[in-house]
Design brief:
The protein has one helix and 27 strands. With about 375 residues, the chain is mainly beta. Strands 3, 4, 6, 7, 10, 11, 13, 14 and 15 form a nine-stranded antiparallel beta sheet that branches. A five-stranded antiparallel beta sheet has the order 18-21-26-23-24, with no helix packed on it.
């Protein structure tokens, strides 16, 4: 036999010899891990039990809460038990609450775990006391002995978990299960979910609840019902021109309630400017959102009329032309106009103005001037 062939043969012999030695994996004796799972101190059926998250080491408990996992290699492992609960409260996208617990186990012989306890799953209740800017969230407490904290997350869709959601609240007290979120926008959908943590990680998650905040009327004294010295409160009035050009409260004719606002242009020619204005609270305004202006209008003439809707602050100067078709004189009708705010409206309140420049001697009336968010 050649020297080269002898060397190859010798290496093969060594390899076969080493393969017969205990390499810590292939020749190890396999063991079983079995036990009983309890939930609310009762045997828990249909609980998922897994070792190291492996599909081939995953079973479900029977009616007695019993499970048995065979073929487990010796060593340290993580055993996880998990229960998905049928939803009992309003839940977005059919998302259920769940309870889970992970145990560190050492397997060097057949292992029997007689009492594995799942924490009581948390149920997030329907939101209460919903306003245009706040809502109250409450949930049931867990009963886990190693509880560390509740983490409440919110999102604008039902695709809510710890990575997509925004952390809204953390509570480290077992029975501190109430939170009022006062950071909400009007007329907007919100989704919430609670996760329960111990010192080693997540031990449960609630169902998802969703709701929509109330819309808010941005204009104060929109019907001109409240007055001081014959001037509607919260409003600033400006009428330029001669003495026959004016803006005043009309207590005789109104679309709704007792008052309307009467505009009169006294000159046959020319265009004397008139406008009314008030500040809109920046806290209720959403950049990029769409709003609807609604109002009642009456005139003593037939034809086309127009006013400018103006929104101003140190960082914004937006003008919208609102055209009105008047088919019958001295008859009230309602009109709507949609407009969008820009994506950046700054950090200041907005001055809202209705600006007229209508030539000719004539009169018109406004009532129920309202702005509400559409989307």
């Amino acid at each position: 036999m050649k020297i080269r062939d002898c060397c190859i043969f010798a290496l093969l012999i060594v390899a076969i010899f080493l393969s017969c030695e205990d390499d810590g994996t292939s020749s190890q004796e396999l063991h079983s891990v079995s036990g009983y799972v309890f939930y609310s101190d009762l045997p828990a059926e249909n609980i998922t039990v897994s070792i190291d998250g492996k599909i081939n080491h995953m079973v479900r408990t029977n009616s007695d809460g019993y499970f048995n996992l065979a073929g487990v290699r010796p060593g340290d492992h993580q055993l996880t038990i998990r229960k998905n609960l049928t939803k009992s409260h309003k839940s977005a996208a059919n998302v259920q609450s769940f309870s889970e617990k992970t145990y560190d186990i050492s397997v060097y012989e057949d292992l029997v775990l007689n009492f594995l306890k799942l924490p009581k799953a948390v149920q997030l209740y329907d939101a209460d006391a919903i306003t245009s800017s706040s809502a109250e969230l409450a949930w049931s407490p867990t009963d886990d002995d190693n509880f560390r904290e509740y983490k409440l997350y919110k999102h604008n869709t039902s695709g809510l978990d710890e990575t997509t959601g925004t952390l809204a609240h953390v509570s480290t007290s077992l029975f501190d299960t109430l939170f009022v979120d006062e950071t909400l926008n009007p007329n907007e959908a919100y989704f919430y979910r609670v996760y329960v943590m111990d010192d080693f990680g997540r031990i449960g998650g609630s169902n998802i609840v969703d709701f929509q905040t109330n819309n808010v009327q941005l204009i104060r004294n929109f019907g001109f019902e409240e007055t001081s010295a014959s001037v509607p409160t919260n409003w600033q009035l400006f009428a330029g021109g001669d003495t026959d050009t004016f803006i005043r409260i009309d207590t005789v004719d109104a679309f709704e309630g007792n008052n309307s606002l009467n505009f009169n242009h006294g000159a046959e020619t020319g265009c004397w400017e008139m406008w009314i204005s008030q500040d809109l609270d920046r806290n209720y305004l959403i950049a990029g959102a769409v709003y609807e202006l609604t109002f009642a209008f009456k005139a003593d003439f037939v034809g086309q009329s127009m006013f400018n809707l103006i929104l101003r602050n140190p960082e914004l100067d937006q003008w919208d032309s609102v055209w009105i078709s008047i088919e019958n004189a001295n008859q009230w009708f309602e009109h709507t106009h949609e407009f969008a705010l820009p994506n950046d409206i700054g950090n200041y309140d907005l001055e809202f103005s209705v600006h007229f420049c209508s030539p000719g001697a004539k009169s018109w009336w406004l009532d129920n001037l309202q702005i509400m968010r559409l989307d």
